[in-house]
Amino acid sequence: MERTYAGCLFDIDGTLTVRGDEFIPVYMHEILANMCLSVPMAVCSARRLSHAYEKMAVIFTKSDSPQVCQENWVLICENGSIGYIYNTPKGKYEEFYRVPYPYDDAHRKNLFNSLNNVLEGKLSSSFLNEVGMVFRPANLDDPDREALAARSHELAAIATGQLSKSDPKGCLKIGDSAIGINIFPYQGNKEYGTLQFAKYLRDTKGINVEADAKELVVVGDQPQPLGNDETFLNGKYGTPFTVGMTHPDNIEPLPVYDLVNGRVLTGPEGTKYLLNNLKFRTL
Question: What pTM does this model have?
Fold first, then answer.
């Protein structure tokens, strides 16, 4: 029997946007703006709230009902460390869960400073988020996206060595999005974000979602080891699809295959295909 899904979670960069582009393409606007009126959706991104909202604002404004659109879009940020839901009376997104940094704030700032020192000359920018921290490779606008990804991978390798000295509890994780790296609590990952979205749907929306959350479609593009979607697309929770790389060792996540035209679809083209061809329960 064909599965009917209860909701969707999406990575942003490379999933809702073409990798290397800043904006969600126009051909995605209508389906993301109006399908959410009957199917709850979430982004699960390394981006902090202000950056995630900036990406999604065009979707909210394009909706036939912008308020309901925002009420049905959950923003899970900082690789799953913090989730936000829309507070209608206040007209803004507010935190509904948080995974705290596992050490004190002095440790967080010291780690940030030490990583800036060891990565000196290799960065375009770095900043502290609400919980974790972000480091972006030099020449971020490089049109050669493979070269940019290689620089991001280099940052991840160097940071891994630094964490071996600075994280005695093994409580921190590195996510590599191929356009930068994020360091965040090990438990505050995208897998946890998926579980929190499922809990929110059960507790607040009254939607039946089982413990393994297989009724949720989970879409990303970086499932490889150390990839930004490694825990998001590992198949433990949700039904995962990749619109980018595949995992070298695992069957899941499944790529998106266009049966009519006989080709694998990537990026927002693959995401749109899933939304148009999977079956969803409606609110």
Answer: 0.92
- Among 101, 233, 118, 222, smallest CA distance to 164 is for 118
Q: Which helix (H) or strand (E) holds 102?
A: none
Convert the pLDDT of each residue in 187-242 to its tens digit.
999 999 999 999 999 999 999 999 999 999 999 999 988 888 999 999 899 999 99
Helices (H), 124-234: 145-166, 190-203
* pLDDT tens digits for range 143-168: 898 999 999 999 999 999 999 999 99
**Cα three-residue angle 179-180-183, rounded to 5 degrees:** 150
CA distance 51 to 69: 18
Q: Which fold would CATH assign to domain 105-185?
A: Hypothetical Protein Ta0175; Chain: A, domain 2 (3.90.1070)
Q: Which pLDDT does position 70 carry in this prediction?
A: 97
pLDDT at 1: 45
Domain ranges of the chain: 4-99+188-280, 105-185
Question: DSSP 3-state assignment of 184?
Answer: strand
Looking at CATH, the fold of the domain delimited by 4-99+188-280 is given as: Rossmann fold (3.40.50)
User: What number of CA atoms fall less than 13 Å from residue 209's CA on the CB side?
Assistant: 29
Residues with Cβ < 8 Å from 256, sequence gap 6 or more?
Answer: 241, 242, 243, 264, 265, 266, 270, 271, 273, 274
